[in-house]
Design a protein that fits this description.
Blueprint lengths: L2 H15 L6 H8 L13 H12 L1 H4 L10 H17 L4 H5 L8 H13 L4 H24 L18 H24 L1
Helix pairs in contact: 1-2, 1-3, 5-8, 5-9, 8-9
Protein name: TetR/AcrR family transcriptional regulator C-terminal domain-containing protein
Organism: Streptomyces kunmingensis
InterPro entries: DNA-bd_HTH_TetR-type_CS, Homeodomain-like_sf, HTH-type_TetR-like_transc_reg, HTH_TetR, Repressor_TetR_C, Tet_transcr_reg_TetR, Tet_transcr_reg_TetR-rel_C_sf
Length: 189
């Protein structure tokens, strides 16, 4: 057993039972070890959850970085969509990620910010747009993952349309981008 095995099994457990049911006791049983042996790898459950969150973000964290030839608007949309897809890959992915602090990918974050500013987006606007898009995405996925969905017997109240989560996400993302484009245009005039 090693740290990576513990994280992988913890993520599999998350997918099976959901975040509320993940416990070190359950994980130890799954790994066929005594619970205290997990503390060799993670001092607290919070440390384990942070490692799980980081590992769950691997598909987004290894996506290609922008190149100088990229259009910043297209990249901004693609980057945010990649984040959403990654959160949706895991049961309770948004809840697992919420409140986590990026630690291993600070260089990537700086490179993304440098790309936006080199593309003409003022630094403060780039920071706030990335923060807004990230929080909007987590919130959107949180709502989507909490939605029991069709076939569960719960129908929306009369007069309230069913939510198409992807369309709602895309509409909100477009509003964020359009606001940023407007701010960049204001600064240039």
């Amino acid at each position: 057993m090693n740290r990576e095995t513990v994280i992988a099994e913890a993520l599999s457990l998350l997918d099976e039972v959901g975040l509320d049911a993940v416990s070190t006791r359950r994980l130890a049983k799954r790994l066929n070890v005594e619970q205290p042996s997990l503390y060799w790898y993670f001092r607290t459950k919070k440390d384990l959850l942070a490692a799980m969150a980081a590992a769950a973000m691997a598909p987004h964290a290894t996506a290609p970085l922008p190149t100088p030839e990229d259009d910043w608007r297209d990249w901004f949309l693609d980057n945010t969509r990649s984040f959403r897809r990654t959160l949706l890959m895991r049961r309770d992915g948004a809840r697992l990620h919420a409140g986590s602090t990026p630690t291993g990918d600070l260089d990537r974050i700086h490179r993304k910010m440098d790309f936006l500013t080199a593309s003409g987006v003022p630094e403060r606007d780039a920071q706030m747009a990335m923060l807004a898009a990230g929080r909007f995405t987590v919130g959107s996925v949180l709502e989507e993952q909490a939605d029991p969905g069709p076939g569960d017997g719960a129908e929306p109240p009369a007069g309230v349309p069913a939510i198409d989560h992807e369309s709602a996400f895309e509409a909100g993302l477009t509003l964020i981008l359009n606001g940023l484009v407007h701010r960049v245009g204001e600064r240039r005039t």
